[in-house]
Structure formats: C-alpha cells, structure tokens
Amino acid sequence: MENNLRKNNSIMKKMIFPLIIVMLIQTSLFCATILWGGTIKKLNDNSFDILNERVINRKNYIQNEMLQRWSNTSETEATINSSVKKVLNEKNALIEDVGNNEEINKDIIKSISNDLIYLLRKNSVTGAFIILSDKNINDKPIDSKGEISRTGLYIRDLDPKFNPNDNSDLLIERGSSDIARSFGISMDSYWEPKFSFKSENEQEGDDFFYKPFRAAIDNPNVSSSNLGYWGSKFLLTNAGDRLMTYTVPLIYEDGTVYGVLGIDLSVNYLRELLPYSEINGNKKGNYILGVDRNNDMAFENVISNGYSLKEKFWDGLHSNLEQKESYKNIYKIKNKDNECGDGNIYASVQYIDLYNSNTPFENERWALLGIIEEKSLLSFSKRVEKLVIMSIAISLLIGLIGIYIASRLFTKPIVLLANKVRNSNPSKPVNLDKINISEIDELSSAIELLSANVADSSSKLSQIIEMVDMPIGAFELYKNAENVFCTKEFFSVFTTESKFEEYGYMEKNKFLKKLRGLDKYLQENYETENTYIYKFESKDKKLKWVRMNIFEDELKILGVVVDVTKEFIEKKKIEYERDFDILTNLLNRRAFHSQIQEKFKNKDELKIAAFIMWDLDNLKYINDTYGHDAGDEYIRCAADILKKFISWNSIVSRLSGDEFYVFIYGYESKDSIRDIINSVKKQMNNTLLKLHDGTEFKIRASAGISWYPDDSTNYDELMRYADFAMYQIKNTIKGEVSEFDINIYNKDSFLLSNREELNKLIDGQLVEYAFQPIVDCKGKVFAYEALMRPKIKTFSSPIDVIRLARSQSKLYQIERITWFKALKSFKKYKEKFGDCKLFLNSIPNNNLSKVDFEEIEDLYGEYLNRVVLEITENDKINEDFIEKKKAYIDHWNIEIALDDFGTGYNGDAVLLYIMPDYVKIDMSIVRGIDKDENRQKILKNLISYSNERNIKVIAEGVEMKGEMETLINLGVDYMQGYYISKPSFIPEDISDKIKKELKICHENRNDVV
C-alpha cells in the first residue's frame, strides 16, 4: 500500500505543486493589500477619534458645570461679608473675634443660614457649608481625640433636582440644633454641632479647609476666586463615601481671612452626570473624574462610573497611565503590577481647566478619563481583520478543493483500475489491462501478483470483514465440521483479562469453550432472539458493550460481533436527558411524576410524607441585573442545596425555571420531617453565591408544604395544596416556609383557581359601571362616581377583581378598562349627567400607555375636563407613576381627588405630596360621627387644613341621617352614600325627600354660623 501511495504522489506532484504555489502568491498579495496596507490602522484611528470626541463633549459639559454653576459662589461671598460686618457692628466687635467668640460665631451662622440654603439651591449641589476660624488656624485647643473643633454650618440636599417649597428635603450635618429648629431642617444621624479637624497637614481629608485658608493667608493680594480649591478626599464620616468639594476662603474687607465657604457633590449625584453607556455601544466603558497632582500621569480616582475594571487597576482608587501617548490624548492604563499586560485598556485623557495660571493650585490638574478595553474599542477593526482572514482561509480551501478535483480527473485511470479490482472475483487471479502509464502499469502488475498470492488462502467471509473499517469480528461454524473459522478480530472485540490471539481455523470444542467463558458478561435484560449483549468493565472502570448477532440455518451458524459502546453511551445519555434537568442534574417534571406515581402504588411505605413546593426568590432580579448566566448559577447553587434532601429518603425535582419539588416520605412524625426541612432551609439561608463581579447574593427561596395523609392522599391535590401554600408565603413573607392551611385555602383559593376567570373578564371586558351621586350641602348633584360591577359571578366585588389582578400583574388591564368603559357610559348618558363631573377611580401605581392616552383624547376629548381622577388607597404611592399621570392631567385640566383618606396608604404624607383638589373622607371616619367627638375633631382639623388650601372635602359612606346632619354642621363641601342615593347604571337625581333634608340642614348650619 505504501508503494501504491508513493507512486500516486509522484503523479500528482507534477500538477499540484505549481497550482499551490500560484494560489499562495495570490493569497500573499491579497493579505499585503488589506492587512498590511494601512486599512486596519485607519479603522483603529477612527475608533480612537470617536472615543476622544465623546470624552471631549462630556468633559466640556462637566467643566462648564464646575466653573459656571457649582463654583459660582461670589454672590454668596459678598452677602456673607455684609452679614458678618453687620453682626460685628451690632456687637461692637472686631473681625479678629470671629472664630474665637462663640456668641459672635453663632450670630454670624444664624444670619447667613438663608444665604447658605440659597447657595445650595442655586448651584444645584448636594451640600453647602461655612466654617469660621481666626487666622491662627493651628493655635486651637485639641481635644482627647487629637481634633480641633470649629464653628460652622453644613447643610446637605441628597437630591438637588427635587426642590420643595419648604426645607423638608434638607439635612443639617454640622451646626447648631437651634438653626435646625428655626428653619425646619432635620438633623442627620451623623449630626454634630461643630466641625472636627486634625492639625494642618496631618490628614488629607481636611485639605478642603486648610488649603484655601492657608493660600489666602500666604497670598494676600490674590482674589478669593483665584484661591478656590477643588478637593476630593473629604469624608463626612469614616463610614461614608468620599465627597468632592469646592471651597473658597472668606476674606473680610480689610483682608483678614476668617473662614471658608464651600459646596460638596456626592458620588451618586456625579455618577448621574457621567453616563458611561455613551462611550461604547456595548456599555463596557467607564468614566473616571480624576486629578493628577504630580504631573506624572498617576491619577487619583475621584469619581468612577461604568463597567467594572477594578480588578485590573491598583485598588480602584488610582489610575496609572503610561507616559507615552498611544494616540492623540489616549494612553494605556497600567495594571496592578504597574505594567500594561496583554489585555490593553485605553484612556482618553481630557484635562479640565479649573485653575488660572500663577494660582496656588495650578499644579493639580483635573481630567476626565474615558476608559475602555481594547477588545471593545477596536472590535470593529478586529472583526474586519477576522473576516479578511476567514476570506483568505475560505479562498485557500476552495483552491485546495479545485486542485483536488483536478488531480482526481488526472488520476481517473487509477480509479478505473481500482473499480476493476473491486469487482473482480477474489478467489481467482486478477488480470488488468495496461494503459501505457508507467506508474499505473506498475501498480497493475503489483495487484496481479498480490491477487495471485492471496486468492488461494482467503475466503469470502474473511475478505468482507477485513474490508470493514471498524471493530468487528465474525465466525462461521458448520455443524458437521470439526473446525470453526473466525476472523482474527473476533475475540479482540471482547474485552477480557485473557488475550485470544488465535485466528483463522480452530477446533470447534476449543472455540465453544472460549465462547462459553464469556457468558458471565451477558446482559440478560438486553437479550433478544438471535442477539446477545455483553458488558465489560476494564481495570480503570471504563465500560465496553459488545453486541453479537447469530444467523443460523440447517447447515451452519454465522455470527458477527460489533463494539457498540458508543451506541450504548448515546442511548444512556438520551435516557438521562429525558429524565434529568440538564442545568441542575435533578429529575425533571416527567421523571418526578413517574417516580411519585410508583411510590403512591404502595401507600403503606409512605407513612407520613411531605410534598414541598420551592420557589426561588430574586431570580428575575438577578437575570435582569447580572444576566442569565448569573441566574443559571443561582439556580444551580439552590439545586445543590436541595439535593441534600435525597439522603433523607426524598425525591427532588426541578419543575421549571425557579420552581422545585421535594417529596419526603417514610417518617413516623411531622416533626422529624420539619427538622429536615429546617436544616436544609438553614443551610440555604447561610449560603452565599458570589457573582463574577464580586457581588454576593444570599440564596433565598419560599416554600409551601402539604402533608400526606392529613391534607390529602391524592398526589395531584398535594401538589396543588403545596403550590397554594408557597403562593401565600411568597406574597406575604418572602423567603419563609409555610404549611398548607385548608381554611386559608377555602378563603383565598380563588387567587389561584380563578386566573382564567380574570382573563375572561379582561378579554371580554365583562364589567359595567354604576354611578353614585355626589351632592353638595344644598342638595344639588355635583358629580357621579363610576363604580365597577363585575358581570362574572365568581367576583363578588371589585375588591376581588383588584386582588386577583394584582396577584397576576394585570392591574394595567383593569386601569384601561376603567378609563374606556366609564368614559363610554359618560358619553352615552351625557344628557343624564348634564354639567356634572365624573369621579373615576385610578390605580396609583399603574399608567396607561401613550397610545391609550391618545385614543382616550380622540374618543372623549371634549369630556376630559369634567373628569376627577380618584387616587385609590390600594397601593403605596409611586412618585414616578404619579408624575407621569400628572402630565396628562395637566394637559386635560383634570382635577385630582384623594380617595379613602385616613386609611390604607392615603395619609398626611400623600396629601402633602399630591395636593389634590378634593379629599374624600373614608367611611370608617364617617360612620357614627354624629355620636363620636373624636371623629368630629379629626374631621374639623382636616376641613380647616383643606379650606386654607382650597381643597374641597367629600364625605363618603353616609348611611344615616344623623351622620349627614353632623357632616353638614362640621362644614364638609360634598357628601356621598347610600342614605343620599344608591348607585345606578343610568345616572339618577337624588330624591326630593333627601333634597329637602339637605336644604334644612344647610339653612340650620347657616343660622348657627
């Protein structure tokens, strides 16, 4: 065969080598043009230019904010100097007394407090402060902690974007408690009456005070604007985040330095101004606002926002760059070993001009760094490069295929020769025709010689088996013969400790003895007619499967053995994947159901058993925040814990995404099972999952338990009960274990069983609206409230609809139905409504889509200014949803009513936030108000508060005449209730009797007044 191949190569070389050389030359030219012709470099340069442009734009914005807004303190400085002068004149004191005389210090702080608040609001910063000191800054008494106390005032606003009319959003960090009380400002939990400092140059965190103060003393002829200092190491408390500060010295008219004025900017506030997603489309960039104090490209990281690259930096607090530019304004970042490493990280450095020339702090150079990994920045050029390489590879492959085809055509005579040999009778010598090609004719002669030598000694069976390129053996046993023919591979296919090297003909008895010696490896469960399976295990525990097929007739027995290990492994794999969850290696739903059914066939063995439904908490949050790979790791970690049940006579399964089943059986008491469950739950609670970014998450799961046989002896019911118990605990106290309670199930099972009923109600909009009059104290109908009435008997009240919709996250659909159906009826009965308003209940934490609002405006635009939107008490108010609603409310001139005031979430805080046009007093206050002075006092206070703010008061749930009379006497504006009028599907006026009673009550009230 070697001779054959050598001659074949000698023929093909004449054609293949020149073609390959030509193809390689063409490929080299293509590579030189594309890869080394500057195209890739140009793409890389474009990527660097885009990075620079984006960072420059962001730098310009930050620089403008720092210079034009945040550091604009000149107006406040002048005002403070005037206030100081006034206090000194009133106290007949000198400027040298400031910082030393505590009484003068307090008067100054009190007089400038409003100015400090004004600075905080005007500059849109998160903090403003003033610190008073005499010019001898180090000649102060030091306390036991080695600190110097200084009088000042420090006010913070954690959300500068939100500016209420009062100071409720502010906190005092340092300053007198009298100031806090005077201005209605809360004191922070870290509040202290004075500032505390170490001595000068002892603590970098105090530089924000000492540096501008010392600069003003050392540079008496420099204006305060040129002495301002941007600081980065200020810590309010040791446990808090660093703050960025800007401070200027306070210089009196005679040049005396008596303190510093400053602002601070919190880390969270600054991060909002550094949207790292703009650096790169895949959001793997990072903005760092840093300062280079030594002009050595070693930046102190002040603020960082973006994709975490901390593990590649020193410690997350510094960014060390190479001195040499990689591109214009772009440098490589050194890693923890002060080297650049394999995975380059680039930084576009754009300096921020904060200090003028020849000023004390001009050497501290601030810069904005736009940071991105090379693989993200140059991804496009790398992709182009890969595509070019792939194109070259494909071209080479096509060329090789072409060469191969050409060579095959050239060697066609050899193929014809091979076919003739293949079709010849192997038991007879082969005669081949000459084709006048020396190599081929030589090959033909060799084949003829070989054929003549083997024809006499080879049988048909041996030739067939030897031509098969796989582990296969065969034997042929004639029943009347003394010998058996077997191929040399026959016994080598079997794996035994004995080695059988015989092949060809052997004695029948010896053959049968050896074959019977393999019977111990037979697998009877796989045995079928004429087919036998053998299973062998090697010393290294590897399994091997062999199949033997027998074909028997009257004269002989023919057997074939084949190694089917791969086939069996694949079959086992398919069976495993059928029964087990790939992610967790737990039983899947089908296999779990099958095993449980087997267990329930013999219920005596179950004894006391528990069916547990587990549901992982926070999986959606992890998937949404850290990706599905992290979510899969969370599931695997929980599954590994639940596998502990298996050792306690349990069956464990993963049902679906975050749900698991556990069935524990064969115990004498529930307490024994509870101990096992508590043990596993405790281990779960103590397990932390560490994500790729270092974040650690506790494994949490909610679980429901149903008991066999107490709760049920039916598998499906146990599963349903456990599901219900899990549902109950997950919607009350996440992360706990709850046992099934039949009483709760009978009460709330509709939350599970009526899901389809809710879908039916929503899809068919199977609700209608009744309208209950709201009247003024003179008996005139002022408005009607639209009240939902479900058409499906399953829902006894709107509360059932809301509860089920909330549990199924379908409150949006209910909100939409309310708007469209109520307005449709309002339009239909517009003559009945007259000029009355329509009170429409709205779920506070749900908004319609923009398309819905546009459709409402198209259909009912002329009626929207008569709608009063009732904010219900069902959920805690979400400010984002309310603000979005207010946008449409203001556009349509819709008024707002706060429903059920005094219950649920609708209390004083919500009243202050929403500032509604109407307040509806809950019936729990109205009921029995004519007999309860406490209720009357509560209502009087609310009416007084509302009248001052032009808020109308509506009393709902009026069911007694005495209640109505008392409410009128107390001064409510409107009333609503069954005593006045019941709801009806077609709006109706109130009865003449009620009108008369209302009129009399109103007249009597006026007489009293």
UniProtKB/TrEMBL annotation:
Signal peptide: none annotated. The chain crosses the membrane at residues 15-36, 387-406. GO terms for molecular function: cyclic-guanylate-specific phosphodiesterase activity. CDD domains: EAL, GGDEF. Keywords: Membrane, Transmembrane, Transmembrane helix. Pfam families: EAL (PF00563), GGDEF (PF00990). The keyword Membrane applies. Residues 751-997 form the EAL domain. SMART domains: EAL (SM00052), GGDEF (SM00267). Residues 607-742 form the GGDEF domain. SUPFAM superfamilies: EAL domain-like, Nucleotide cyclase. NCBIfam families: GGDEF. This is EAL domain-containing protein.
